Amino acid sequence: MKFLLVLLLIPLTGQAALKFAMERSTSLGTDKMEVHDEDGQLIIKKTSNWFDKKEDTRLGEFAVQNPGPLKVVTAELGQIESEIKAADQRLNALGRGFNELNNNDKPHAPFFRVNGFKVQEGSSLYGRLEKIAEKLQEAPLKLMQGVELDKDRKNYVFYADGKEVKREAFNARFFCESSRFPTRCLAREWGALYLE
Amino acid sequence: MKLFFAALLLASNSWAFTQEDINANIALMNQQTQTIAGRLNDDGDDCDDMFEPLPGKTGPIEFHTAVAAIENQAANLQRFLSSECMNLLTQNLATLPASANARTVMQRLIDISRPIFEDDLSAQRACVAAPVDFPELKELMRSVSSATECGSLNVGKAKRVNGKAPFGNRTIDYLLARDKPNNYRAVLNVDFKQNGSTVTSAQMLARAKGCLAAAGGSMKGPGGKSLQIELLSPAEMAASGIPEGNRPKAQTVNISPGAIGSNAGNYQENIACPTLVHEVMHLMGLCDEYSGDRDGFACRARGPLDSVMESAETAFARSVPRRVTCECEDKDLCRALKASPANREFIRQPRFEQITNIRFRNLYCKKRDLDSDYVEAWLKNETYKDQTYAEKGENTNGGVIFREINLNNNGQVEGFVYTCKCATGNIAECQRASARLIQGPHESVGHDCPPHTKRTEVTWGATSGSGSATENTVTFDVPAVPGASLLQPAHFNRILDGTCPTKSTRYNTCASFAYETDPSVCAYAPDYCQSASWLQEGTP
Q1: Which of A74, A139, B400, B503 has its CA 20 to 30 A from that of B97?
Q2: What b-and-e string marks burial along B401-423, b requiring 16 or more CB atoms within 10 Å of the CB?
Q3: Which pLDDT score is estimated for A4?
Q4: Mean pLDDT in each 10-residue stretch from start to end of chain A (196 residues)?
């Protein structure tokens, strides 16, 4: 499952906020690619490069630079959300709920979250959400707040308001589980990078 | 409708059907249903017309026979579907457009999975009493169940542990054997699934077996008990000679490559022993104990840092001895180590990144060089006999200043200082870790290898012999912390107590909140779930 979730800053006038995420729980933190609504605008937050389809060593909050093609995708997401809500209502009538029926047999498996509803692998909706995530990977992202590991892997470069604000020497022994790649490294408060 | 009929077929001796059989049966049931629907749409009331034979596999079958078969398939759901499969099926049925048939099957599945006994934790939390229609029957069922689940296991005997895990929506299934009075063995049937990885399922199983064998000496319980865990593939289980009724069902463990083609794929393929063992513990009914805040699990009871369900790496590092081979970044360093036993002894004392875990360093600490004057003074100062020194730091809110001297890539002495401030995050956790660094003793919970070297090989388990150094590598043993166990006392007892509802009550209670997402439910969690004592249940 290889995804890069790419989203827009789109003012959603006359439309309920849509929140979408891909997540995976680990003891060192949650690998997450998330879209959520802040004051009517979509914010993209990435705490891990786990879901990336191509190499990207940036974590944090992003803006999408070419939002046009994504309107179709967000419409499809809205449709899926409607279907989940309808399923939840049908289950409520029988004394159950959609989230309540999620299993805990794979605590560390990736899953999707659509406006609070958790969709696990095996769900009839999972394949459609995978395709949506694949479609979203084309638009370029601009890092607004967060961190980037530079190409030489010598520095963490920290950003605020889209601009570099400070640097910190990257030491694999200090930040990573192993000094030897591939390994997982933590990037201060911004999350985890899986590095080859 | 395909989903509906597939559900019915799934439970009916599913191992006897190929996918082709199932597809053919779905098509047949669709045909039968359409035939019935057609007859119902006709205005006639003639029973003979209604009950004409229906299409069958090998020819027409009697109408009532077909109806009975459908009903039989539905009844089989109760016997063959695991609770996880029932949940998923119910969820998927709910996504179908409003359908009376789907609703009927959903209702049936929900009724099957409703709790039977009054003391179900979910019912208690919701303050909903289970129906009390036949109290005597319930008590009898409870007694019979308890005798099987809760009875002591005699030496030389084995029993199958099969039922619901304490944290709900999960089934556990393993064979528990008592080989000697204090020696237990658990056997699981595990099917590793490798999706697109270059590591095969067989290789992953072999790796997991090796990890568990190495960790076997480290799984200790109260009263001197010990546990070994054995994994068998489905084929090995079938050939094991274990009576069929005692054979656990195969459980799938996905060790698939990560979502990243170039990033996480190889990481997953190199999955280490601690993570593998952590996953096996889930199969045995243990829940996660690391913070659930990020995942929306508001009520999770935390474990200590050295719990295998909180931080598997830390737990392994403390409790499982190993031999490590470390490659020098620069040959000059290894030459210096090879040439001088004093140099090898100099690097033996674990340094900061060997005695701290990655999370602590990342959240609270910064690293910088010690200037050369300081290092020189250190070497000359006879009171500084060790290579590390830790003290309380000013303006660190209970943090620590940790200084160390090492050998650099040229075999010369260098120094670092680590400043750890407990200003944000889990301040208490930071302060505890800082206090341990100051007071000692220091335990190897981080990197195994000294600075400027990288681990190339690790052999888990007790080893003998002295270390060695070559021009490229240095090899030495990392002992376990004396008395350390990979399992907390409550973990150990929970595995032995299996699905018995009257044992491991503290563990079961706290674990039931591990994946709870409704914050209002947290109020039902007992106070002891917020202290470390819930994992000490059963300690003499």
Answers
A1: A74
A2: bbbbbbbbbebebbbbbbbbbbe
A3: 47
A4: 45 57 88 72 83 89 78 84 95 92 84 93 90 74 95 97 97 91 92 92
Judged by DSSP in three states, B409 sits in coil
Interface with chain B: mutation pick from A101, A112, A121, A171, highest number of B CBs within 10 Å: A101
Kindly state the tokens that stand for B380: 């000359």
Whether A183 is in a domain gets the answer: no
Q: Is residue A4 one of the residues assigned to a domain?
A: no
Give chain B's mean pLDDT: 81
Closest CA to A25 of B314, B266, B284, B297: B297
Tell me the per-residue pLDDT of B429-462, one tens digit each, with 9 for 90 and over: 899 999 999 998 888 888 989 999 998 988 888 7
Q: Is residue A123 less than 8 Å (CB to CB) from chain B?
A: yes
Residue extents of the structural domains in chain B: 2-113, 152-316+486-535, 321-478
Which residues of A, range 43-82, sit inside 8 Å of B by Cβ?
49-55
Q: How far is A10 from chain B (nearest CA, A)?
A: 26
Q: Residues B404-414: pLDDT tens digits?
A: 999 999 989 99
Out of B3, B91, B254, name the one closest to residue A98 (CB).
B91
Residue A6 is assigned to a structural domain of this protein: no
Number of domains chain A is built from: 1
Chain A residues close to B106, C-beta within 8 Å = 90-91, 94
Q: Containing domain of residue A155, as a range? A: 20-170
Q: Give the bridge partners for B458, in sequence order.
A: B324
- Is A2 within a domain? no
